[in-house]
Amino acid sequence: MTPGLINANPVVHETKARSVRQESTDETSVDEFDALEIFEHVRDITDPEHPYSLEQLNVVSEDAIDVDDKSSHVTVTFTPTVQHCSMATVIGLCIRVKLMRCLPPRFKVDIRVAPGSHASEAAVNKQLNDKERVAAALENPHLVEMVERCLQEREG
Amino acid sequence: MACSSNWVAHVDVYVDPDCSTSKQVDSRNAISKLLLDKTITIQQLVLVAGKYLTSNDNAIRARGLLLLAELLEDLANTPMEDTAIHSLASFFSNRLQDWHSLRPALIGSIALARRPKRVGAVQPEDAETLGRSIIEQLDVQALSQKDRMLSLELYESLLTLHVSSMEPLGPELVLGIIAAIEEEKDPRCILVAFRLVEKLASIFPEPDGPFGENAEDIFDIVSRYFPISFNTPQDPRGITREDLSSALLKVFTATPLFAPFCFPVLLEKLSSTLKRAKLDALNYIGHCALSYDPEALSEHAGDIWTGLKSEIFRQEDGVSDQKDSLILEEAFSCFARCIEASQKVRTNEDDITGDFMKLVLEDDCVVGFLRRVKNELDQEIDPGDGIKTYALTTDAQLQAVGRLLGAAARASCTSCYIVTKTFLSSLLPSVEVVSPKSSDHQSSESVAAKGHSISLEAGLSLTGLEAVIFVLEGARHLANVLADSSNPSSSEFALKYWLDPVILAAPVLIDTFSRVVASGVVTTVLKLGVAGLQALASYPATLSPLSEDQLETVLTFLTSTFLDQTKGSELKDQALGAILAASNLEEKCTDLHRQEFLSSREKEKVSVLNVVLPKLLDAVQEACSPEPLDFHLRALAALSASRESVREKVLKVLGQLVPSKLGQTLALADGSFEFAKAVMIFRCLSGQIIPFCEIGSVGQLAACDVVMDIWRSIGSLPQSTVYIAPDILLPLMEVIRVTVQRCPERLQKEILTMSLSVLQGGYSPEQNTKLSGVRSLSAKHMEGKEWLVALVGSVIVGLLPSVLFEERESVLRLLVSTSVANLDPVITDTAAQAAASMLNKWNEKKSESEEAGSFPLKEAITIAVDEGWMPIIKQVRRDGTGDMPNSFCAEDAEKSAARSIYALALAGKGLAMRGHSRIADIAGAMLRVLESLGKPVAYSGTTDSFEMKDQSDKLTESAVGRAAVESFGLIVNEHASFLSKSQNAVIRPLYKQRFFTSILSPLIEAVRLDSNQSSRIWFYRSFACLLSGTPLGAVLTEGKRVFPLILEGLSTLCTYPEDSEYVLQLLLSLSSFLVDESNGRSFAAEYVQSMVNRLVPVSQYKSSMMIRESALQCLAAIVGLSFTRVFPVKSQVMKAITIALDDKKRLVRKEAVRCREVWSAITST
Question: Which residues form the MIP18 family-like domain (chain A) (predicted)?
Fold first, then answer.
């Protein structure tokens, strides 16, 4: 028998219709980095456990992302589906890797678990924002494979 | 028999499991050929193969049987003896019990069962044996998909072709099929299973027959599939959800025996929350009701009505999304079908209502709605009371009652009659409330109070009004259906009774609606009024409830509404929409009943054509400010868009309107309204009316008349008229151009002769003919009359090549000299285009009236090119300004040089299109101009170096530079208004490709010889223009030579911010190399390093985000090239992408993320 899933039956939420933003093609105006842009990057990450996206599981949402373009700072707050979710660190790692690839290096990215949404909140937060530990995690081929799988473009 | 041993060997090969598949197929085909040729018979084959057919080895037995079965398939259309068929049939029915060789046995049985009579079909008793065997031997659901499919197909062929022999099997057959299809999951099998049930139902229609007795079980099996949920978006077998759903619908409607089970199931699904299920259930209920007996329906009518009602009144706050509105639509059409079905059989003559209609009439909601509307009218009973009693709380629900009545009116003549009779009368008084009916009432109260009272009543009165409109529209829909149907006599008959209530009510309706429009202040109310009039006016002519006079009243009213300046634009648009609807309908009726219509037309029937159009045209004539005129012209364009007859009339009136005043208009200064009006009318004519005239139609003739009128009035202008503002010249030329280009040769010639005689000043309005002894066509004489030349030019541009005229030499000279004169670009450009068109279409054949002999093309080119444009260009090239005394002249010379270059490029295009060799000279001249652009201008005089530099900087932006750069692009690009197919140009196939190939070598050579980096830039710019119009195929074939040039161009141009369009063009060409799998990528693969070197700076090109995006796209496309070349540049590219990730534009950043993703995917491992 395979080990049981952490959250065997997650609630799948309807995704919002993707409004295509009318981007200005005017050369003089500057498009600042904003929450929606960051959200576009992370919404399609696949959950490590289920074939659903983080958006469908309500793990990430546009409101839970703070962007300060001037001081190059991004804060992503995500909500694990269950309190004791052991996948929280993997999800956080996925978000971090994805943003590392999509944002210019000037940004400092903080990734946090939403307050009160996880049993070992402090530990997870610490783990996700410790440069050394992230680097170490990305040395682990199993973890990297898992992360890559989550970041793969989903069909359709 | 010589070949006997041969074919026996084939049998052995086929059966031998060790032989390769291809060999087996070959030998099978060989035997099949022999059988078809009748060299051997099937009996012989059976004898030879006998040992295999009875072998104890299962595999060999199966192979042997498969051989026989496949051969039978091949022999499907070859006659065979009855005895052979008989023995084969009993053999195969026997083999069905051998599960090792089941599949071949099935294939063989199907082949036998499908044999048509003329080549010897299976005997009835054999078919019965076969049927019995399959029923008894096979447990279909235990088989694999393929075998299940075959079994079901065998059933199907037996049921189709051997019905009589299957009937005796009765209950066994039905039970066998039930067992075979139960729990089927494969979509292919399901489709066959559905067809089987349908067939069974038609074979055993009796309620106490084998099917009738099992109807509940059978329905239970098929109803499990409802609603079909089949979500495979792209089924490999091409089966869609719609296929399955329509097949299941056929099963449901196959027999009335299903009725007792069907409606409860469907109603249960209707009450589910799944929208898909609701939609399907509604659809199925409607169709089932239609196909079952009315008695079956009447049992369930109550339930169905309750179900439908809950759907229809469910929407509480209006329709929120598209699915909901679809459900509502479906519910109404289901409702209409039910009514139609319940009225199919009349139990007695007096009662035509039908069960369903009765239910509706007696329904609480409907009765409540009516009472509420009436309550409102009487204003005695507390309206709140009505609301509570009948639970109609929201506007949407009230509206739903209206729509319901509309749907009922749509269902059938009978129901239409009932609805209109019952409801129009009771709804109408409520409508009256809206309109301030008594004038004394109106006058006694202040305007403010009136507005107040309307808005108070608006809620309910509107609902009544809406309901009336829905009913009218429903009845109109029915009328349209009847008018379209091929049996006009029945509709004529029907007219006598079912439209009576509407006809009776028509005067009141018209009165009410028009008063609503006239009185109201609230736009929604006004719109309702217009909608009501539209509903009335757009009945088909044969079934209109309105008399001629009434129709005229309605149309007149709509027209005046829409011409009324005080009304809001929204309302006016709606009124226009109503008129358009009526107009389209008239057009449709004309198509349908052409004969009738023609005869009625003689009687000048009331129609949009003769009621609305004259008013509209009058309004245009009298318009005195731009906005209404614009609106009127738009309306005219919309009306004439679909109707030739309207176009003709519009052209006639507008055409006379303008030329008659042309003289005065032209004399007016810019800015006056008359002037602007003429411009607007010309634009409307050339843009929206003339291009839609069909060739050879009355409309086109009218357009030609307009042009002739224009020329006549130009001819009669006083000689002193010297100036026409370009603002009006351009639309005027456009009208002429658009008309001439589509005319037949005869009319073109007429217009041309006219225009030339006007040009020569020989036109006299009195005689309307050409005079002799006219002024010669030389440039000197035309001084100040260049606009006239341009107008003639606009005629010449669109001429057919076969139109010849004798003055063409002098006309060409005139055009050439006009094209370089210091005049408005509108005039010079048209002259150049006309000259180029003449060269393109030059016909060596002499015109019949020409005595002096033919004038060859060669000389024409000499006149235009060598004597006309070349000298001017050469002069500038030689020394820039030459000995010009002051800067003003220098500027003039430059301008005229730029014009010459433009004209020369056009001439080059014309010649290239007809494949003339002189194009090479012209291209060479262009290259020399480009070459000279980069060189510092050598002044002959006292200018010092500072001034020299200044001059060369100016040249980069100068007109000459731009004209020269664009000249190649001009040659290879398409232009709608000149030298195109629509302008009747002579076009040789592949001329662009040919030109590109021929110019490439000299261009590359010129670039190579030019050592100066800054002067090469001109070549690169013009190369980019050249690429912009050249077909991709030609560019890719020349890839070896083109590709390096693109790269060099990129690296040179990307430092100049003003060259963004050229850079973009080069990038586009580069990317077309990168996506071309056949050979473009192989060229590109050799240049990976240099491509990256160029693209990296371009990806940071400051002034255009399009360029940055395209550069990143190109970089992303490079990844797919050969790994050994791509990998070494990875770090360089990644660095560039990292910068792009922080681009100020979001779209660029997105592209950068995508690009980074593909680049980071390539790793050394």
Answer: 38-109
Q: Is B367 within the bounds of a domain? A: no
Is B1134 in contact with A101 (CB distance < 8 Å)? no
- Residues B857 and B988 reside in one and the same domain: yes
User: Can you list the pairs that B56-64 forms with residues at least 24 positions away whose Cβ atoms lie under 8 Å?
Assistant: B58/B100, B58/B101, B59/B17, B59/B100, B60/B15, B60/B17, B61/B98, B61/B100, B61/B101, B62/B100, B62/B101, B62/B103, B62/B104, B63/B14, B63/B15, B63/B17, B64/B15
Residue-level pLDDT at A31: 85
Give the domain-ending residue among B1010, B1026, B1045: B1010
Per-residue pLDDT of B262-273, as tens digits, reads 888 888 888 877
Are A53 and A43 in contact by the 8 Å Cβ rule? The answer is yes
Nearest to A37 among B1138, B1142, B1146 (CB): B1146
Among B46-50, B140-144, B214-218, B621-625, the range scoring the smallest mean pLDDT is B621-625
Structural domain including B911 reads 810-845+852-1010
Q: What is the pLDDT of residues B885-933, one digit of tens each?
A: 444 566 777 788 888 888 888 888 888 888 888 888 888 888 888 888 7
CB-hemisphere CA count at 13 Å for B557? 23
CA separation for the pair A19, A58 (Å, rounded): 18
Is B717 found in the same domain as B823?
Answer: no
Torsions phi, psi of A112, nearest 5?
Answer: -130, 155
Residue B354 — very low, low, confident or very high, per pLDDT cuts 50/70/90?
low
Same domain, B767 and B866: no
Indicate whether B460 pLDDT > 90: no
Query: What residues 58-117 of chain A have any CB closer than 8 A to a CB of chain B?
Result: 101-106
Q: Does residue B769 surpass a pLDDT of 60?
A: no
Beta-bridge mates of residue B1029:
none
Are residues B68 and B46 in contact, defined by beta-carbon separation less than 8 angstroms?
yes
Taking an 8 Å cut-off on Cβ atoms, the answer to whether B1141 and A102 are in contact is: yes
Listed by start position, the domains of chain A span 35-151
Do B881 and B747 fall within a single domain?
no
Of A21, A31, A41, the CB nearest to B1145: A31
Q: Which of B1010, B1032, B1053 is the last residue of a domain?
A: B1010
Interchain proximity B1153–A30, CB inside 8 Å:
no
Let me know whether B929 and B869 are in one domain. Answer: yes
Q: Quick check: A28 contacting B, CB < 8 Å? A: no
**B590 belongs to a structural domain:** no
Which of A25, A30, A102 faces B1144 most closely, judged by CB atoms? A30
Contact B1105 A37 (CB under 8 A): no
Contacts of B232 in chain A (CB under 8 A): none
With an 8 Å Cβ cutoff, are A31 and B1144 in contact? yes
- Here the ipTM equals 0.92
Domain identity same for B747 and B839: no
| Domains contained in chain B, number | 2
> Does residue B904 share a domain with residue B1004?
yes
Correct CATH for A35-151 of 3.40.50.12280, 3.30.300.130, 3.40.50.1100, 3.10.20.310: 3.30.300.130
Is the pLDDT reported for residue B627 higher than 80?
no
- The answer to whether position B738 is within a domain reads yes
CB atoms A101 and B1157 under 8 Å: yes
Q: pLDDT (tens digit, 9 = 90+) per residue, B830-851?
A: 888 998 888 888 876 655 554 4
Q: Which amino acid is at A60?
A: V
Asked whether residue B181 is domain-assigned, the answer is no
Tell how far CA A101 is from the center of its chain. 12
3-state secondary structure of B770: strand
Interface test with B, best of A18, A27, A101 (most B CBs within 10 A): A27
Query: Would you call A57 an interface residue with chain B, using a CB distance cutoff of 8 Å?
Result: no
Evaluate the CA torsion angle B82, B83, B88, B91 in order and state its sign: positive
Residue B1144 with chain A: CB contacts under 8 Å:
30-31
Cβ separation A25–B1142 shorter than 8 A: no
